[in-house]
Amino acid sequence: MKAVQVMGYGDVDQLEVVDREIPVPKENEVLVKVKACAINNTEIWMREGAYGTGTKSGWRPEGVQFPRTPGSDITGTIVKAGQQVNEEMIGKNVVLFPFTSSGEPGSEHISEDMSFIGSEYDGGYADYVVWPAELCFDMPLADYTESAVFSVSGMTAWHMVEQIQPKQGETVMVTGANGGVGSLNVQIASRVFGANVIAIVGDLALEDQLKKLGATHVLSYKSDQLAEEILEVNGGPIDSVLDVVGDALFSTSLHVLKKGGKFCTSGSAGGQKTELDFRTLYLKHITLYGSVLGTREEFKRMLKAIADGKITPVIDRMFPLEQAREAQRYFKKAGKLGKIVLLPEE
Q1: Which of 46, 111, 259, 314 gives 20 to 30 Å between its CA and that of 39?
Q2: Would you identify the CATH topology of the domain 2-149+314-343?
Q3: What DSSP string describes 285-345?
Q4: Are 99 and 59 contacting, i.e. CB atoms less than 8 angstroms apart?
């Protein structure tokens, strides 16, 4: 089979297209013919060494072992089953829950042994992948590509919104609203929880598209008066922030939050370190949440919301598997809206 492997830390030249043996599923696993695999920041930051370049460079203490096939947003068809797996699963179209864990229900994502597909296991930048049968769920939509854009970014977004628990009519600000997680934050907060959403992007040409996803207002982080604009369109301080940017908008976010407001972050594309005046935190009674991934039950709730049409896929562009380097370069460009997807069969 064809696969794309990360050979080590560095630029996209560390991605190589190779020929490998088709993996054999263990007794509790299935072999999945990959139909689509969406790209996430996670695999790019892993390759670039943003998580570290020694131990703790992945999700486990020992670090990533190279070469590694990345890719965690995977859909496909089960073509082979291990000995302990019901053969009726063969032929099913599935979406893969992206990590293993021995954590109790509700805390799987914070278990010490949480291990991620595409980091600790070979992932979906390939023609085939093996995965535990119990972590393969029915696709929420009929289309492979559309169903592939939710796994990691969707579960991350869903978990973020569940943590802040916005009430009907409250205002939530979403940073990086044109990205994979951000565009889903907009949809989940507005369409599922009934919040008003202020979407923050760089390019206001995306305004109409983001309003179709549920945004009430769309503002640009390039404005010199962003904080004032946020307070103006909302008629005062906002209730919560869903953030994937980090440093670049951190002080603005805390400034526009009301007393008792909530700030939830799952990314730091605009800077991984920041300055915090603790007086802002305690005088405004702000609650901070760190968030990444989520639980199996949240994953199931998300899939149901997708199947019910409350959340829709947002796809910017598709690439054939062999163009993984070009796809990851494109992923890092500004001005996109939605997900980038690799298609092994193209």
Answers
A1: 111
A2: Quinone Oxidoreductase; Chain A, domain 1 (3.90.180)
A3: T-EEEE--S--HHHHHHHHHHHHTTSS---EEEEEEGGGHHHHHHHHTSTT--SEEEEETT
A4: yes
Domain ranges of the chain: 2-149+314-343, 154-290
Nearest Cα neighbor of 257 from 278, 276, 234 is: 234
Q: Where are the beta strands (DSSP E) in the chain?
A: 2-6, 15-19, 29-38, 73-81, 93-96, 99-100, 115-116, 128-132, 136-138, 171-174, 196-201, 217-220, 238-243, 257-265, 287-290, 315-320, 339-343
- The CATH code of the domain at 154-290 is 3.40.50.720
27 token code pair: 């007794």
pLDDT of residue 232: 98
Can you read off the two tokens belonging to residue 20?
């490998």
**Per-residue pLDDT at 58:** 65
What is the per-residue pLDDT across 36-52, written as a single tens digit (0 to 9) for each?
A: 999 998 888 889 887 76
Report the pLDDT averaged over residues 248-253: 93
